[in-house]
Sequence to fold (280 residues):
Amino acid sequence: MICSVIGDFVGSIYEDQGISSFNLPMVTPSSHVTDESVAIAGICDALVHNLDYGEALLKWFNRFPDAAYGFGTASWIQEQDVNYVGNSEGNLAASRAAPIGFLDLPLSLLLDYAEASARPTHNSEDGINGAKAMVYTIWSVKKGKSQQEIFNYLFCEFGYLMDFYTLENIKNTNETGSSAYNTVGMSIWLGMSGKSYIETLQNILYINNDGLDLDSIMSMASSVAYAYHFGGNAKNANKNKGYKKLEFETKRYLFQSKNQPILQSVQEFELSKQICGIPF
Fold:
């Protein structure tokens, strides 16, 4: 799911910087990927090769030990035990669940997958709800459900106050931290906020503040925006010059760095989904 990695890549350099503008450069020489991309690669690996989610995540986290993991995930990694259950309430379970939402399977099954993918590290109500909310949203957008229908479901099922959000409200709220409850609904709203994929990312750079978990929010919103503007279809995305430029820059960075395995994992997922259908 390169769209999820693109968001992480774009947001990485602005997190904790307190810099905000619609016109910030999206890619700089300092752009990089973080724990979001590592976790997404782990979920893609689990789906393609039918691995236990905990096993796949621990393998990828150990492969990239310096990816700036949050406290809850870092504590889980330290146990080095796939049977150990963490209870983080952060948003990493939500951001890494995005590939599940793009699978062409019944919603009930996808929500089960979302919960299972969250449980190793985020076995809390907020952590699991965040993963389910992301999967539901991406699936629903692809199925053509209206924005209001999606927002109503997110409020009824998870208590996300979707009608509160505007760009100015988000910017003035000065949200900080990585709580799933406070950031997943916001990220989903932002993913549908722009008239184009690029405008969506510009909106997120505009609402940035010192302490906002920007790489996570950007990753989640990018996944939603990919579904919202392109229908989750690579052929549609390939027609958009702005998106293609960001995709190229992200893939070039991954290919030319130690992060090449992340690129390999997400591309394997995309090809397997397109050609074979997954899970097998």
In short: The chain has a mean pLDDT of 94. The longest helix spans residues 125-142.
